[in-house]
Design a protein that fits this description.
single chain; 249 residues; alpha/beta; Rossmann fold; seven-stranded mixed β-sheet; two-stranded antiparallel ribbon; 5 helices; 21% strand; globular
């Protein structure tokens, strides 16, 4: 993988900057960032994105860039349209959407600086043929699920479900006993991506037009490592997900 590729990053998580109440600390060249920020920087030039659409509705990245969205804030309708168009034109997206974020924060509930506690991307997921669900009987605690290479740490993960959208605009989605995430409305044109599910339905691999979306129904990967042996596992999992989008496998 080229170290000079551009990697757009849209996230509410403290990946590039640590949480701090002191603006001077955030602006300092020595301000700490997470292991994931360093890992992404080793893959290319990381470009933090505040918005996925400019005033004219244009997407801020070129078609050959990689976009990483890690527990992003809710998107505006304009951003949904811009993101969908960019992916369909050949864009590559690594998406982490967590229905029950377990990463601790120093900021209280309701503080706009706090990471997004629940993923709010149902409209664009449904448009690509996915529904994110959460089982409230899930037990808390980090555990591992297998990836193609290595393991992925998860904690209270969601699971994806493939949506079937019929010609009359109705959908086959039923909650199957899973609750917690609002289902987006099934309408004609939704579900027109080609997705497959892996890793106990926590990983979805979708071909959308000429582009590709690799979605993970959890964001525990980005939590800080608990020890010397934990950090290489997290780095390996993130690198594998990025390289899978690069290779096309």
């Amino acid at each position: 993988m080229s170290r000079t590729q551009r990697i757009g990053l849209s996230t509410s998580l403290p990946i590039l900057w640590d949480e701090s109440d002191d603006p001077r600390e955030l602006l300092s060249s020595g301000a700490p960032r997470s292991w994931a920020g360093d890992a992404l920087a080793s893959q290319g030039e990381v470009l933090p994105l505040d918005s996925l659409a400019d005033a004219q509705g244009r997407f801020p990245l070129p078609a050959d860039a990689l976009l990483v969205m890690a527990q992003p804030r809710a998107l505006t309708p304009q951003e949904n349209v811009a993101l969908d168009g960019w992916v369909r034109a050949g864009g590559r997206l690594l998406l982490f959407v967590d229905p029950m974020l377990t990463q601790p924060s120093r900021y209280p509930l309701g503080d706009p600086r706090r990471p997004q506690d629940m993923a709010m991307l149902s409209p664009i997921l449904a448009h690509w043929g996915l529904e994110l669900r959460f089982d409230p009987s899930e037990k808390p605690g980090e555990r591992m699920v297998p990836l193609g290479e290595g393991s992925l740490p998860v904690n209270l993960p969601g699971r994806f479900r493939l949506l079937g959208i019929y010609g009359d605009g109705t959908s086959d989605r039923g909650n199957g006993g899973m609750v917690g995430m609002p289902a987006a409305s099934g309408k004609s044109g939704d579900g027109n991506g080609s997705c497959s599910l892996e890793s106990a339905e926590i990983l979805a691999d979708c071909r959308i037009g000429r582009g590709r979306v690799l979605a993970v129904a959890d964001a525990a990967l980005f939590e800080e490592a608990s020890g010397a042996a934990d950090l290489p596992m997290r780095r390996k999992a993130l690198a594998w997900l990025v390289s899978r989008l690069e290779s096309g496998d």
